[in-house]
Structure formats: C-alpha cells, structure tokens
C-alpha cells in the first residue's frame, strides 16, 4: 500500500460496492470527534503538542487490523503536495479543513479506504467510516471499535456530565456526526426540495452539498446529517437519521414514479440528451458534467439506459474533479484544459461500457 494507490485509484471500495437502497443512497458516513486530555485544541496548540498527538494516535493503531478494513497507513499533510491533498479531499478521505490547515495535520487511512482517522483537524482525532448504501449503524459499529481501541492507549478529554469535549461546541456530547449521501433528482425535478429542506432542519438535521458544510449540491447529490450531538445517545442519533432518510427514499421513489407517469417522454428525452452530451462532448465544465451524470444515473435506475453500471455516477463524479484530472495529467492544468480533459475522460469511460 502506498500514497500513489490512494491518489491513483479513483473508486474506493465503498463507492463500487452495492449497499441497501443504493439506487438513492450513495453512501453512509459516521464521524467521531475526540480530543486528548491536557492538550490544547488544534487552533491554539503548539507544534510540539501537535507532533506528540500524531505520534501517540498512530502508535495506538500501528500494525492493528480492525474487522475487514485491512492495514493502516499514516499520511502527514505537510509532506504532501497541494494537488495530492486535493485528490484526497475529492475522494472524501480527508476534509477540506485538514487539507487547508495541514501544517500539523495527518491522516491514517485503511487499505480499503473505508476508514480515515484525521489527526489535528478541528479536533485532535476524527474517526471517519464510509460505507455504501444505507449502512449508518454498520459504520458506527466499526467507528466505535476503532474508538474503543484508541481510548485504551490515549486519554480522551471527557466530562461525566457533558460527554466528549470538542473544539466546536456543536460537537460536544457524543461527538458523533452521522450522514448519508443521497441522489435526489426526482425531488429536484418535481420542485419538492424547497419544502423538504426546512422540514428536515426542524428535526435537528441539516442538508448540505456533496463535500459537506458550505459546499454545493452538485448533480442533485445531497448530504443529510445530524446537528444535535448533546443530550442524545449515539443510537438515538442514528435511528432519527435513518427514519428521516427512509422517508426521503420513499418520497424520491414516489417522485420518480410520478415523473414516469406524467412526463415519461420528457424525462426520457432529458436522460438521453444528457447521455448524448456525455458521449460526444469535447469540452465540458464540472457543473454541466455533474448535471448530465445525474441524469444518466437516473436513466439507468429507471431502466431507460441498459448495460451501464449505476456506479458510474460515483466514479465519474470523482474522476472529473479538478484534482483528479490534474493528477492523471501529471501536473497543473488551466481551467479550459481541465474542461477538455474532463470531456475526453468521460467519453473514454462510457466507451468501456459499450
């Protein structure tokens, strides 16, 4: 296992594998925020403290094997080039925050890329587990296994009344952020997201874009996650999220059925127009590519398009990002050069399905 493997392999196992309700739920993620007792938070700690935390956390998991995730490898952020960090962000293996504030940051990645332990991001430790489809409980089980192991070697900052202490007050308590990535073109096309998002917010959940807070919902992909971490157990948080997601799945399927009944030929036309663009374009920007890929995935799910894997959305949404395009090119590309290479890559990938 090497850095090159993490950078050059576009599709992580959680992207290519099938999971429950994977026609709508692309992935489930669990993240646990933890801090080391008697050390300042990353925003104010010293270089010496930051380095000691990296060493102690890595020492606690070095050589260990957890469930089926394989071996673990340490990546130190200040040893990586900006483009390399960007690729890891695009693969959802590290956060934009860790990539942008990485002087004392590091990440421990599992061989199958389902587990990422970010060190010295907003908190000292952030354990992230990613699974295909709707598998929040399964992701939490693995995250807790790793968390329990680290806690045997590292003394966490914990208060008996409040729970785990975190840099941001909104994470205090369980320190748990659970989220699902959902493809919701039916609800977007039937103009229902405007009413759904406020309703979800009232339930203590939040709707974000593909890369989390502050990001855009490219390609009709939305991230649904909990906001409340204090006063609820981990089980309650996961069950509440799963309940809302189950309702969203039902509404998305209902919207797709309604479109098929009332606007079938228009929807089929939209799908095949996007398929035509992707199959023949010579220049394409990232937003247009994301929109067309969403239409293509919808067409595959609804049976309009045969013999193309539905995982193509997961794969090409990563492959066509600026970092990956430049990684494959072997160096920086101007925006117009990226648009040309993006079009070429999409055409080549679609041809492989023929």
UniProtKB/TrEMBL annotation:
CDD domains membership: bacterial_phosphagen_kinase
Motif residue range(s): RDXXRA motif of the pArg binding pocket involved in allosteric regulation: 338-343
UniProt-listed GO biological process terms: phosphocreatine biosynthetic process
Assigned keywords, A-Z: Allosteric enzyme, ATP-binding, Kinase, Nucleotide-binding, Transferase
Kinase keyword on record: yes
Record bears the keyword Transmembrane helix: no
GO cellular component terms listed in the entry, alphabetical order: extracellular space
Residues covered by the Phosphagen kinase C-terminal domain: 24-255
EC code: 2.7.14.1
Ligand binding (ATP): 27-31, 92, 126, 177-181, 208-213
Gene Ontology molecular function: ATP binding; creatine kinase activity; protein arginine kinase activity
Stated regulation of activity: Appears to be allosterically activated by the binding of pArg-containing polypeptides to the pArg-binding pocket localized in the C-terminal domain of McsB.
Reactions this protein catalyses: L-arginyl-[protein] + ATP = N(omega)-phospho-L-arginyl-[protein] + ADP + H(+)
Function statement: Catalyzes the specific phosphorylation of arginine residues in a large number of proteins. Is part of the bacterial stress response system. Protein arginine phosphorylation has a physiologically important role and is involved in the regulation of many critical cellular processes, such as protein homeostasis, motility, competence, and stringent and stress responses, by regulating gene expression and protein activity.
Family, similarity comment: Belongs to the ATP:guanido phosphotransferase family.
NCBIfam families (alphabetical): PRK01059.1-4 (NF002194), PRK01059.1-5 (NF002195)
PANTHER family: ARGININE KINASE 1-RELATED, ARGININE OR CREATINE KINASE
Protein name per the record: Protein-arginine kinase
């Amino acid at each position: 296992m090497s850095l090159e493997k993490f950078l050059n392999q576009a599709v992580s196992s959680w992207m290519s594998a099938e999971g429950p309700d994977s026609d709508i739920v692309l992935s489930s993620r669990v993240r646990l925020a933890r801090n080391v007792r008697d050390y300042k938070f990353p925003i104010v700690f010293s270089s010496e403290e930051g380095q000691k935390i990296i060493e102690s956390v890595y020492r606690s998991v070095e050589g260990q094997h957890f469930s089926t995730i394989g071996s673990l490898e340490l990546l130190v952020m200040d040893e990586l080039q900006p483009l390399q960090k960007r690729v890891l962000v695009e693969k959802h293996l590290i956060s934009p925050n860790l990539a942008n504030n990485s002087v004392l940051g590091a990440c421990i990645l599992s061989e199958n890329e389902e587990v990422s332990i970010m060190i010295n991001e907003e908190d000292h430790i952030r354990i992230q587990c990613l699974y295909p489809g709707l598998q929040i409980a399964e992701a939490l089980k693995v995250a807790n296994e790793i968390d329990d192991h680290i806690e045997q070697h590292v003394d966490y900052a914990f208060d008996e009344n409040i729970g785990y202490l975190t840099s941001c007050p909104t994470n205090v308590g369980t320190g748990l952020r659970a989220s699902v990535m959902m493809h919701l073109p039916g609800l977007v096309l039937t103009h229902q997201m405007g009413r759904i998002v406020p309703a979800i917010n009232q339930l203590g959940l939040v709707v974000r874009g593909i890369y989390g807070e502050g990001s855009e919902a490219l390609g009709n992909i939305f991230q649904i996650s909990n906001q409340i971490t204090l006063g609820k157990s981990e089980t309650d948080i996961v069950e509440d999220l799963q309940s809302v997601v189950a309702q969203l799945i039902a509404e998305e399927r209902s919207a797709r059925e309604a479109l098929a009944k009332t606007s079938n030929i228009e929807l089929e036309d939209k799908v095949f127009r996007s398929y035509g663009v992707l199959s023949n374009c010579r220049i394409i920007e990232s937003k247009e590519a994301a929109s067309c890929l969403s239409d293509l995935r919808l067409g595959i799910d609804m049976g309009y398009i045969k013999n193309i894997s539905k995982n193509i959305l997961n794969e090409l949404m990563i492959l066509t990002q600026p970092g990956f395009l430049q990684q494959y090119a072997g160096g920086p590309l101007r925006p117009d050069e990226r648009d040309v290479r993006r079009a070429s890559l999409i055409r080549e990938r679609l041809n492989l399905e023929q």
